[in-house]
Each structure stands twice: as structure tokens, then as C-alpha cells.
Amino acid sequence: MSKVYTDAKAALAGVLKDGMTIMAGGFGLCGVAETLVEAIREAGVKDLTVISNNAGVDGIHLGKLLETRQIKKMISSYVGENKLFAQQYLSGELELEFNPQGTLAERIRAGGAGIPAFFTATGVGTLVSEGKEIREFPNDPHFKGRKYVMETGLWADVALVHAWKGDAEGNLVYRKTARNFNPMMATAATVTIAEVEHLFPAGEIDPDHIHTPGIYVKRLVHVPNAAKRIENRTTRPHPAPQH
Predict the structure, then answer these.
(1) Comparing C-alpha atoms, which of 119, 110, 116 is closest to residue 188?
(2) Contact (Cβ atoms closer than 8 angstroms) between residue 42 and residue 9
(3) Which residues lie closer than 8 Å to 15 by C-beta, 6 or more apart?
(4) How many helices (H) and strands (E) would you count in the chain?
(5) Nearest Cα to Cα of residue 166 among 224, 230, 227
């Protein structure tokens, strides 16, 4: 059965349901599955829990699902660029589970590796550790003398990832900084759906270049003209003309 679907709506057919948990890859607006997220908006599913480093910006990517109130809870690290995200959280309309960024990445990686929990020193003594198990490891010379908080692995019903290249078997290659949360999220969901900019027949991608093996990817959609957005454009000032 082919993993390649005609469009994002077809790729999501039979997968979406109210109350599900979705992982959304990307960092800021880099490496985000914007086409798949737009199809989720059009599908109208609600009460979603979304695991993502952030929620894009207002009106773009996950910001669109916040506009339509389809997201019930976010499990995130950074929310600073999305005003609607902040407004909904501060008003109590949106649940939010904050994570240190490295902890979020490791929780996702752990989920994909079948690891139910792990201990980290990050967040001990802060709000992040409230209500969680704290443990010391006095018998280990490398870790004794510090306290560690237990964090649980994360798993989703669906993971949405964006890749630069992919083949018909679902093997994926990410480009530059788009290789952020995408590889680990691809391993940590019941169904991983990828949108790819360049789609090739099976066997045409060098195996040594593959970041996500196709065994993790259930469905693909070809998005040849994906938008390349810049969250904050920063340029160096031009030198003054010499006379």
C-alpha cells in the first residue's frame, strides 16, 4: 500500500478525532508542517493536546488552531512570539505544561525509545518540579550531591513533521535547522505523517543521508512549494557610502 497521499486532507483522513494528542515538529517557523496543520484546521477537530516547542506566531502554523480554539492544551517550552497563546493561557482558556527546552526534547526522545521516565537536574527547585518525584543518587560518584526530578516520556496519537526530501518508502532528510524536533517526534507517535518538499522514488536517497528511516513514517504528502517564513528578520546595517 502506498504511503504517498494526494494532499494533506487525504493524508489525515481516518486519523483525526476530538481530544487526540498531536506532536508538531519545528522550531519557531522553521521545519513546521504548515500544510498539514492547515488541513487540521479545516477538519475542525477540537479539544486537542499539542506537543510542540512553541506555537508558531499569530495567524501562522499552530497560531491558526489557537484562533479557532481547537487546542485545549499545549505541552511546550517557549511561547513568547505568540500573543494569542499568551492571552489564552493567562485567561485560563488554554492549559499549558511548561518544559525546559532540553527536557522537552528528551521527553519526546524517551517516548520514541520506549523509556517511560528519566531523571534530570534541570528544573529542580522551580515550579517545573512541583508535584514530581525528586531523587538523589548518592552511590554514583558522577551524580551524587545533586537532586534530580523525574520527567515522563511523551507519546502522541499523531506526529506531524516537515522534511526537505523524502522517498516513497517514507525515508526522510531534514535540511539544516529544520532538523530540530522533527526526527525525534517522528519516532514518538502511533501515526507519523510527513510533508516533504522533494519526493523521490524509493532507493534514490543515499542511505547514509537518511535522518528518519521510513519504518517510522506511515503517510506522506508532497508539498513542493512550501512557504519559507522568517520569524524575525535581522540584517546587518549597510555601510555608509564612501565619497
Answers:
(1) 110
(2) yes
(3) 157, 158, 191, 193
(4) 6, 12
(5) 224
Domains parsed from the chain with CATH numbers: 4-112+154-222 (3.40.1080.10), 117-151 (no CATH)
Residue 151, classed as helix, strand or coil, is strand
Q: Residue 89: how many CB atoms within 10 A of its CB?
A: 19
* pTM of the predicted protein model: 0.91
Burial 136-162 (b: 16+ CB within 10 A, else e): eeeeeeeeeeeebbebebbbbbbbbbb
Predicted confidence pLDDT, tens digits, the chain (243 residues): 899 999 999 999 999 999 999 999 998 888 999 999 999 999 999 999 999 998 878 888 899 999 999 999 999 998 777 889 889 999 999 999 999 999 999 999 999 999 999 999 999 999 999 999 999 999 999 999 999 999 999 999 999 999 999 999 999 999 998 999 999 999 999 999 999 999 999 999 999 999 999 999 999 999 998 877 777 677 788 787 776
**Spatial distance between the Cα atoms of 40 and 71, rounded to a whole number of angstroms:** 11
